[in-house]
Amino acid sequence: MSATRLRVVPDPANTPRRAIIYARASRDRTRRAKSTKSQVDRCEWEASMRGWTVVETVVDDDRSASEYARKGRDGWSAVVEKIERGDADVLLMWEGSRATRALDAYVDLEKQLRRRNVLLSYDGETYDLAKPSDRRRAAQDAVEARYEADRIRARITRQKATDAQTGWMASQVPYGYLRTYDKRTGGLLGQEPEPHSAAVVRWMVDAILVDGMTPNSIATEMNRRDEPTPGEWREMQKGLPRPTSLGWTSKTVQQVLRGPAIAGLRQHRPADGGPEALYEAVWPAIITAEERDTLLAATYRTDRRTHQSNAPAHLLTWLARCGECGGAIRHRAQRNKGRVHRAYQCANRRCGRVYIQQGPTDEHVTAVLIGFVSNPATRATLLGVARPASAGLGLIDGVRRAAELTSKKDDLRVAFLAGSLSAETLGEVSRDIDRELAQIEAARQPAPVTGPAVLRLASSDDVAATWRALSLADRRQVLRGLFEITLTRASAKGQRTFDTGRVVVRRA
Question: Which stretches of 315-459 are assigned E, i.e. beta strand?
């Protein structure tokens, strides 16, 4: 079917009947989704005129579709999956740029629609991408959408630079301030200190400069007072409910105090990666420039990390699996009434149905591990020993003897390098040590699980104490080598009692 203008009559009976409506708006500052609602209304009217049945409507609010977008689009991902499954015969949108403004993404979409024999409909026209003429017109629209995205980005970049140089406000309201608007036109007039949060900033500054408190102690006090964090405060300023968060941290305090806005300065970071610049702002300062300089020195740490470590910070994150979808498990922390609740949850955003308390889960897995390794038969298997490791030695003593011999050999090398041992003596004693080590190794069967942490546990007289002494990385290595851990969904919604049956630990 060639591209045709929308007619207020049903299409022929052989026209595809199943349609998926997709609507998107780049900005939804009021979060009322007016733009997407009007898009959906228009598409529903068009579908009724064409005789199509709308099988699903998918909406992405406050999401960009350009290559510069920083947030993903869950709705669009769902549309792509439904098309791939053959759930629709036509993709219906208000305009083509709702799908994407990136050319590479459009190419992928075109290939998928052609492969699945799905029509593309927008702007009152329908395109059969199997036809060269329709494919060319849709591609031209995609190029125009990309061009418009580039123009918008360039215009915004220039405007941001101009605003910064004149000291005008950035898009985000700094903590401690409140925006003022013209009552008649609704236009932005400026920003001024908000009484409560500005007083909090002033207190934090005095706490460091006068009382000598640390950012960490300030964060503790802020949490004790149940003071909203900057993120929570911004949501509440919009009239939204206070969200849950981890509360104040040392990093949060430093971000507020080191920010130039509270000193009446406008910061600008060029989009091209150029050097940052500070300009005199149009809003009143909460602290003086001298106080800010002192704060920067007081809150600067030469031993601070310059990047966030990727090392796991919890026992089972990305190690255990979800019992519903088989996906990885992540850590989740929520703050409620001054308390932090930690849990494990499925990391798959399309699942997320497994949610279980972290503390009891770690304790149960630890108990299973200690009980497993403490069993004499298990320890013998882990050590891979079939008979006494050396003449007159037991299973555990054989491993210890091997460690002693290895250490002795290292000491001999040190003595030789220091000149207190001759080469002949070193060679003779080393040969004796190597001979005994070979006998110990020959008496052992290959261990089913390798790794020094596993051997250290298996050769310990007190498995629980040795486990506690291991680093988190070593504990995770032991669990990964010994077990397959699956966390399952609660049997009833709102279940509060911890159920060990939800933690399935199997031998790897």
Answer: 321-322, 329-336, 339-346, 355-357
Counts of helices then strands in the chain (DSSP H, E)? 16, 15
Angle between helices 289-298 and 195-209 (to 10 degrees): 60
Integer Cα distance of 416 and 247 in angstroms: 58
Q: What is the pTM of this model?
A: 0.45
Q: What is the pLDDT along the chain (508 residues), one digit of tens a residue?
A: 444 444 434 454 455 589 999 999 876 454 444 588 889 999 999 999 999 999 999 998 888 777 667 677 888 989 999 999 999 999 999 988 888 888 878 888 999 999 999 999 998 899 999 998 998 988 888 888 888 878 888 888 888 888 888 888 888 899 999 999 888 888 888 899 999 999 999 999 999 888 888 888 999 999 999 999 998 998 888 888 888 777 899 889 999 998 899 999 998 877 666 677 888 889 999 999 888 888 887 765 434 444 455 567 889 988 999 988 888 898 888 776 667 788 999 888 778 888 899 999 999 999 999 999 888 888 877 776 433 434 444 555 666 677 777 778 777 766 766 667 776 777 778 778 877 777 766 555 444 555 778 888 888 889 999 999 998 888 998 898 888 999 998 877 766 788 888 999 988 7
User: Are residues 38 and 4 in contact, defined by beta-carbon separation less than 8 angstroms?
Assistant: no
CATH code for the part of the protein at 177-302: 3.90.1750.20
Helix, strand, coil fractions of the chain, as percent rounded to 5:
45, 15, 40
Write down the CATH number for the domain with range 17-152: 3.40.50.1390
Per-position DSSP letters for 159-198, written without gaps between them: HHHHHHHTT---SSPPTTEEEEE-TTT--EEEEEE-HHHH
